[in-house]
Amino acid sequence: MRPKGATATMPSAINGGPASALPELFTLGEAAARLRMGASTLRGIARRREIGHTRSGKRLVFTASDLAEYLDRRRVGVGR
Question: 30 exposed, middle or buried (CB, 10 Å; 0-12, 13-18, 19+)?
C-alpha cells in the first residue's frame, strides 16, 4: 500500500513521455525479412539462443538492436 499522496512511477513512454523511449519491435516474419531468411530458420536460431529476442505470449518479438547484434557477431573480418 502506498502512503497517502504517493504516486506510482512509470517509464516516461507509458505515462505520456516520448514514444521513442520504447524500442521498435519486429514480429518473427518482419525480423526474418530484414535478415533475408525464412521465418522457420529464424525461429530455430532463436530457439538455440543465437539471437536475442523477447516472448510476448507464444510469439517471438525482436528489437532492432537484437538484429544488429546478431549480424555483428556473424560478421567476417577481411584478412584475419
Answer: middle
Domain edges within the chain: 23-74
Note the pLDDT tens digit of each residue in 11-53. 445 555 565 678 899 999 999 999 999 999 999 999 999 999 9
pTM of the model: 0.69
Q: Does domain 23-74 have CATH number 3.40.50.2020?
A: no
Closest CA to 43 of 28, 58, 54, 57: 28
What are the distances in angstroms from CA 32 to CA 12, 20, 35?
30, 23, 5
Q: How many CB atoms lie within 10 A of CB 11?
A: 9
